[in-house]
Design goal:
Length: about 350
């Protein structure tokens, strides 16, 4: 087995130095005596030889069951994981391959990687690095390419996303006023009234509209779940201005998600709006729904999130048709719908010094 440390002598001072072949660090041994330097060198190599020997024995046994164990790198693992993804998920993993924080990790052999290497990538990376490196690590564990976790579950840094907020009605109007393209104006209007994701709304087609029932039906690109939503007069006016066949937003639909997001940010800067993204329209829709008393099960279905009502409906092979948020807001404003306030149970006050048993 190759020794980790070796010694050399500085010609000018005559002092012996030790060189670490793994880290490249050099350190003075503080002696000019060759025999003493040899003793110090052997002591250092002996201190690391037993752990390395145990690892080499374990690697030998594992290689009997997996021939690629000694050569499989993180690059191979991430390519294998990306190959299992489709659509938008695959595009996300292809972007992960370009993450600067992960690039130093990819050439390393998985079985030879130390936990410090992963922690360094996490420290140098972003929230996205944390999320996707954790998934890659778990994928290697599931495939038995890692015999044990490099970073225990409890030691992974917590994922802390930046605070996100909704677009206000005033900001929405400013964005519309600053946008010259009619197609983009109509796109923002549908985002405001339907609360869909940027890709789902951009991908809407005229065939998704049922003018008789006044509904829009589409399948979410991210989850595959279906949404059937009634629309009001404002949405009807926008839809009538869009193409009668094919994609409603032919130009926007061809753009990548990142390109649409950048164009939106540029437009916001021109009108003095900051701190929002296209996803903020979904937050705005949810907040408006809550304020006007829109039933939670309707809101969850419209936004494509899971709810007990949706599971029960799908179990019966039925589809829920949701009223438009626009009409629900108008009915709430006219007093035809009275939102039920949330009431917290109030426990009776007990004399001081006495407890209350609840059960």
């Amino acid at each position: 087995m190759k020794n980790r440390y070796r010694i050399y002598r500085r010609l000018k001072s005559g002092v012996f130095y030790v060189h670490d072949s793994q880290t490249g660090k050099q350190e003075s041994l503080g002696t000019r005596d060759r025999a003493e330097a040899r003793l110090l060198l052997n002591a250092r190599n002996e201190s690391v030889r037993q752990p390395q020997l145990n690892l080499q024995i374990a690697r030998t046994y594992l290689a009997g069951a997996d021939e690629g164990l000694a050569t499989r790198t993180w690059q191979h693992a991430i390519e294998a994981l990306t190959g299992t993804k489709r659509g938008a998920n695959r595009e996300r993993w292809l972007r992960v391959l370009k993450d600067p924080a992960l690039l130093p990790l990819l050439p390393n052999v998985i079985i030879d990687t130390q936990a410090d290497t992963l922690l360094t990538a996490l420290q140098n990376g972003t929230v996205s690095t944390n999320v996707f490196l954790r998934r890659l690590h778990n994928f290697c564990m599931d495939m038995n390419w890692l015999p044990w976790p490099l970073v225990p579950k409890r030691q992974w840094p917590s994922v802390r996303f930046k605070d996100k907020r909704a677009i206000t009605s005033q900001e929405h109007q400013r964005i519309l006023a600053g946008e010259r393209s009619t197609e983009w104006q109509h796109y923002y209007e549908l985002l405001w009234h339907l609360g869909g994701s940027q890709t789902d709304i951009a991908s809407l087609a005229a065939e998704d509209i049922d003018w008789t029932a006044r509904t829009i039906a589409y399948a979410r690109r991210k989850t595959g779940s279906h949404a059937v939503i009634h629309f009001g007069e404002s949405v009807a006016g926008v839809l009538q201005s869009r193409p009668a066949t094919g994609c409603l937003f032919p130009q926007i639909a061809r753009w990548k998600e990142s390109d649409r997001a950048k164009a939106f940010i540029r437009g916001c800067k021109l009108v003095g709006v900051s701190g929002v993204s296209l996803h903020s329209y979904r937050y705005a829709w949810a907040e408006r729904a809550k304020q006007c008393g829109y039933p939670e099960r309707f809101a969850q279905e419209a936004l494509g999130h899971n709810s007990k009502a949706v599971h029960r409906a799908y179990a019966k092979k039925a589809q829920m048709k949701l009223p438009s948020l626009e009409s629900y807001e108008k009915q709430a404003a006219d007093g035809r719908i009275i939102p039920l306030p949330s009431v917290s149970p109030v426990l009776p006050q007990l004399p001081e010094g006495r407890g209350q048993k609840i059960g």
